[in-house]
Specification:
With 494 residues, the chain is an alpha/beta fold. The chain has 15 helices and 20 strands. The N and C termini lie far apart (80 Å).
């Protein structure tokens, strides 16, 4: 059964079906039914019915069920890791050591954060009144999560929404819905009331678009490409819904002349190849001082050559496939077009042999592409790193910011003053210094420019999923307020 609505698994009313495939070998691992408009309405109505009770629950009650959920998720960690690895083509080591522990920690964080929804303290900002601020849930949230981190992104959508007292209808990618459904089932076991979390498996056109435009959805949250993000904005505008967007990225990786070159090389390989490069924060543009450029390029190429592609179930596998043959072929086409204007240092091919049945692509390093070229400007979303040189610090910052995106970046230097300047001047939602990729539940994740707006994770995410209400109390107890005379004059009484 492929939908989770009102606390139970059920089939889609639409009757349409699809399959989930393992990207490492193309095998079907699950058959699913695909939600349509009637299923969307059913899920939204369940969320709407659950909202009054859940939104009025004491914070400690919401916290307690999330604490239980964190424990249950930890107990089922291996089951989630195996399923995530198969549906998303992740090496099992990545799923076990990154995706699942990160999600467990995120649940535990929001279990605590649910008890800390603070507003401004009561005070007299006017002599005759006491004012206070309430943070209240928005209502029903319609969320769409992507295929690159299916479980983590589902959790990033669900947790701040329900911790703040909202209810949610989540549409994960139809390519990778299985761990989202399992997560919802575990939340039900933990005590999350029926209707608070609903999960629909369906296509963007038949399910996602309907969810975005549903009149009883109060807010939409989307993670995915900037192109689709614009469509989400247009859909939300028809009924003035609140919108949260985490979109594309083209992260700069700036290596200054005083950087620890060995650390930068290791960081570039890890930061560009994580999740087969299918990460909006992945290092994609290595901007390296000309005096270190040749050594950096050679060092990255050497280390790329040691990365092992292989079956995702094997502990020794470093790099898995990309999500589908279609996506692999898109990556290959972009790299092939770059041969006319850049240098393919290593990689640049679809592997054969035992890996031919999967959607694998070799770790690829492209050097010397012009700053206006396709591989520098466009999101590749694969295991491809592009390197280009710079001559002075100002040029490095200019190149780093020469992109419509602004999700993440990193600066590599031993000079604290140079690091402070870079973190101030680079326009991105997160700037790492001498590292690239680490995220933690206590800190926000989100971008600027065409990478979207709003934050996932951390207490800052509550700003997306709550509305601020001002409450003002009169302190005088009089009928005739002094400010009334600006509107009318009370009759004089003899």
């Amino acid at each position: 059964m492929s939908q989770f609505i009102d606390g139970k698994r059920c089939e889609a009313i639409s009757g349409r079906t699809g399959v989930v495939r393992d990207p490492s070998n193309g095998e079907v691992i699950a058959e699913i039914t695909l939600a349509g408009p009637e299923d969307v309405d059913k899920a939204v109505q369940a969320a709407r019915a659950a909202f009054p009770s859940w939104s009025n629950a004491a914070p400690v009650d919401r916290s307690n069920v999330l604490t239980t959920l964190a424990r249950l998720l930890g107990e089922h960690a291996e089951e989630f890791a195996q399923l995530e690895s198969r549906q998303a083509g992740k090496p099992i080591r990545l799923a076990r050591e990154f995706d699942i522990p990160g999600t467990v920690d995120n649940v535990a964080f929001f279990a605590g954060a649910a008890r800390n929804l603070e507003g401004k303290a009561s005070a007299e900002y006017s002599a005759d009144h006491t004012s206070s601020i309430r943070r209240e849930p928005i209502g029903v949230v319609g969320s769409i999560s992507p295929w690159n981190y299916p479980l983590q992104m589902a959790a990033w959508k669900i947790l701040p929404a329900i911790a703040a007292g909202n209810t949610i209808v989540l549409k994960p990618s139809e390519l990778t819905p299985l761990t989202s459904l399992l997560f919802a089932e575990l939340a039900d076991e933990a005590g999350v009331p029926a209707g608070v979390i609903n999960v629909l498996t369906g296509s963007g056109a038949e399910c996602g678009a309907v969810l975005l435009r549903h009149p009883q959805v109060d807010m939409v949250s989307f993670t995915g490409s900037t192109r689709v993000g614009r469509t989400v904005l247009e859909a939300a505008a028809t009924s003035a819904k609140r919108v949260h967007l985490e979109l594309g990225g083209k992260a700069p990786f700036v290596v200054f002349d005083d950087a620890d070159l060995e650390a930068a090389i290791h960081g570039a390989v890890a930061g560009s190849l994580i999740n087969s490069g299918q990460d909006c924060t992945a290092a994609t543009r290595a901007i390296v001082h000309r005096s270190r450029y040749a050594d950096f390029v050679q060092g990255v190429a050497d280390l790329f050559g040691q990365v092992k592609l292989g079956p995702t179930a094997e502990e020794s596998t470093d790099l898995g496939p990309v999500i589908s043959p279609t996506h692999r072929d898109r990556i290959a086409a972009m790299v092939d077009r770059s041969r006319s204007y850049a240098r393919i240092v290593t990689g640049g091919a679809i592997p054969g042999g035992d890996l031919a049945a999967g959607s694998y692509y070799q770790p690829t390093l492209i050097a010397d592409a012009g700053k206006t070229s396709e591989v520098i400007k466009e999101e590749i979303f694969g295991p491809v790193l592009c390197a280009m040189p710079f001559d002075d610090d100002d040029e490095a910052i200019t190149l780093a910011n020469d992109t419509p995106y602004g999700l993440a970046a990193s600066a590599w230097t031993r000079d604290v003053y140079r690091a402070l300047k870079a973190t101030k001047q680079i326009r991105a939602g997160c700037v790492w210094v001498n590292d690239h990729i680490p995220i933690i539940s206590e800190m926000p994740h989100g971008g600027m420019k065409e990478s979207g707006f709003g934050k996932d994770m951390s207490g800052y995410s509550f700003e997306e999923y709550t509305v601020v209400k001002h409450v003002m109390f009169d302190l005088t107890g009089t009928a005739a307020k002094g400010w009334h005379r600006t509107i009318f004059t009370y009759p004089q009484v003899d």
